[in-house]
Structures are given as C-alpha cells and as structure tokens.
C-alpha cells in the first residue's frame, strides 16, 4: 500500500503506469465532485461512493454509534425535539451550505479560493446553539472571490442536483459535528481528527461490503488471475 498524499499524485501515477501497461496497480481516491461534473472513470482508478472517505463513514451507521458513545442522550433528545429534525439531518443541512460553496470553488466555476484556511466552520458557528450564520458565510465568500451577493445567489442556483453525501465535504462535516458535541449534543471536547478515528473504528466490514467502491474493487480483482485484494 502506498499513501499518495493527495488525489492529484495518485491520478498522475496511475496515468503514467497505465501508459506503460504496468500490471497490478490500483488507486482509490475521493470522488470529490467528479460524479456530479461528469469526470470519466479511468482504468485502475476507483472512487468513493460519496464525496470522500469521511462522508462514506458519516453516511453509515458508524455515525450513530459515535453519537451514542460521545454525545449526551438527553441533550440530543432535547435538540431533536426542539428542532423537529435528527442530528444527522441537521449536520447535513449545516455542512451542505459549505458544500455548495466548495462546488463553486472547485467545480466548473473554479474560483479556487483557499476554502480550508479562510472558511473553517468555527468562524461561522455559535458553539452554544450550534447555529450557522449562513448569511455571513456567503457574504465572506462573495467578498473573497470578488462577486456580489446577488451573483453568488445566482451561481448557487445553478448547482446540479446530486446525492447529499456527494455534496457535503467530509472535513467540514467533522468540524461541524465537533462543534455540536461541545455543548448542544454533549460535553465532548473532541477534534476533527478524534471524530475521524472514532468513525473508522465504528465502521464495519458489513457496511463497506455494501458500497459501490467494494463492488468495483471486486470487479478489478476478478479481471486478474494474479492480483488479489480480498482473501
């Protein structure tokens, strides 16, 4: 196994190896917005069902396991009763606001501002209520890329429909969940890295076996009489 330290090096490496007819090389990368924008698949390059590995974990029962272990049942019940929505749906709703901006930033529009540094969720959340100031977030983004709020609203309206876990960026969702667990959903002073680790521990092989990624890996394996991925 080779960690490629990013999607681009993995894609470039596979392209070079494919051109050399190198046998036995397979890369697995985040889909990002490839499915939504029609980026074609490449031989020996497989992608996650959802936006990234983190959303693959978050969209599974692993999230409920982590909430039961690290959240406060009374606070979670109080939140869900007062809002009329589940924690999972609330997490998706908040993270999708960032996801839409990321689509404009990294998709066909390609504004390419530095999202991870300038638009960390902590800057736009009230920790005591787990509420996102979506208006402030959109205004800050519009100013950063040099367009009006009206133009931004128009562009947001052009984002194609896609499964919600393909729109949501995993790192945003993990940070937002960590914010919620601090007060509203529990008393857990955890980090994004902590949550990622707990989700990986809670994620079962049975869940992975249901994914399209696993099916793609089995097909790749079955096309070869030599290279095996699964026992």
Concise overview:
The protein has 14 helices and four strands. The chain is mostly helical and 231 residues long.
- Taken as a percent bin, the fraction of beta residues is under 5%
Number of separate helices: 14
**Tally of strands:** 4
Write the element-wise H/E pattern from the N-terminal end onward. Answer: HEHEHHHHHEEHHHHHHH
Summarize the main sheet: 2 strands, parallel
The 3D shape can be described as globular
* Count of discrete domains: 2
Question: Taking all residues together, what is the mean pLDDT?
Answer: 95
Structure description:
The mean pLDDT is 95. The protein is globular. The longest helix is centred in the middle third of the chain and has 20 residues. Helices cover 56% and strands 4% of the residues. Strands 1-2 form a two-stranded parallel ribbon. The chain has a two-stranded antiparallel sheet with strand order 3-4. The protein is mainly alpha-helical. It has two domains: 55 residues, no CATH class; 153 residues, no CATH class. The protein has 14 helices and four strands. It starts with 6 loop residues before the first helix and ends in a 9-residue tail after the last helix. α6 packs parallel to α8, α6 packs antiparallel against α11 and α11 packs across α12.
Provide tags for this entry.
single chain; 231 residues; 2 domains; 4 strands; globular
Topology:
Blueprint: H1 7-19, E1 27-29, H2 34-37, E2 45-47, H3 53-58, H4 62-70, H5 73-83, H6 87-106, H7 115-118, E3 125-126, E4 131-132, H8 134-145, H9 149-156, H10 164-167, H11 170-182, H12 192-202, H13 205-208, H14 212-222
Parallel strand pairs: 1-2
Antiparallel strand pairs: 3-4
Helix pairs in contact: 4-12, 6-8, 6-11, 11-12
């Amino acid at each position: 196994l080779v960690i490629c330290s990013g999607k681009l090096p993995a894609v470039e490496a596979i392209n070079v190896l494919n051109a050399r007819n190198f046998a036995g090389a397979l890369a697995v990368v985040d889909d990002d917005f490839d499915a939504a924008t029609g980026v074609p698949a490449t031989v020996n390059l497989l992608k996650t069902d959802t936006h990234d590995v983190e959303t693959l974990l978050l969209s599974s029962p692993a999230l409920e396991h982590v909430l039961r272990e690290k959240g406060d049942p009374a606070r979670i019940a109080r939140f869900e009763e007062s809002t009329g929505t589940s924690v999972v749906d609330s997490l998706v709703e908040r993270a999708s606001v960032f996801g839409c901006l990321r689509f404009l930033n990294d998709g066909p529009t390609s504004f390419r501002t530095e999202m991870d540094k300038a638009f960390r969720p902590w800057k736009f959340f009230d920790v005591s209520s787990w509420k996102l100031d979506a208006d402030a977030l959109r205004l800050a983004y519009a100013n950063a890329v040099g367009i009006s709020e009206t133009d931004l609203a128009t562009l947001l309206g052009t984002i194609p429909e896609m499964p919600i876990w393909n729109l949501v960026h995993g790192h945003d969702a993990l940070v937002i969940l960590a914010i919620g667990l601090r007060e509203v959903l529990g008393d857990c002073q955890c980090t994004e890295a902590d949550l990622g680790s707990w989700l990986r521990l809670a994620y079962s092989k049975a869940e992975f076996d249901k994914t399209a990624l696993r099916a793609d890996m089995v097909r790749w394996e079955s096309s070869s009489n030599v290279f095996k991925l699964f026992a």
